Amino acid sequence: MAAALRAAKRFLQVSSKVTPTLSRSAFQAERKDSNNPNWIAVGLSLSSTVLLWVMLIRHHNYELAEYERRKTEQGS
């Protein structure tokens, strides 16, 4: 039992050879230039946001119309 606990403790221990300050992510090899944004990505994200909001509002209006139709149908 003690051997298993020692093995688990050794496995969960942070290695002293690699520290977070000395390692660098492969996806952040260089810093992004905030003075020159990627306008294609900005345009795509904004247009997709607008498209999703338009679809949401149209679906909401459709649901309201269906609710009103069923309410009047049920009342008569």
UniProtKB/TrEMBL annotation:
Highest taxon of source: Eukaryota
Entry protein name: NADH dehydrogenase [ubiquinone] 1 subunit C1, mitochondrial
Similarity remark: Belongs to the complex I NDUFC1 subunit family.
Subunit structure as annotated in this protein's UniProt entry: Complex I is composed of 45 different subunits.
Membrane spanning stretches: 39-57
Cell location: Mitochondrion inner membrane
Source organism per UniProt: Python bivittatus (Burmese python)
Membrane topology category: Single-pass membrane protein
KW Electron transport (keyword) present: yes
A GO cellular-component term linked to this record: mitochondrial inner membrane
Major localisation: mitochondrion
Keyword annotations: Electron transport, Membrane, Mitochondrion, Mitochondrion inner membrane, Respiratory chain, Transit peptide, Transmembrane, Transmembrane helix, Transport
Function: Accessory subunit of the mitochondrial membrane respiratory chain NADH dehydrogenase (Complex I), that is believed not to be involved in catalysis. Complex I functions in the transfer of electrons from NADH to the respiratory chain. The immediate electron acceptor for the enzyme is believed to be ubiquinone.
Name of one Pfam family that matches: NADH_dh_m_C1
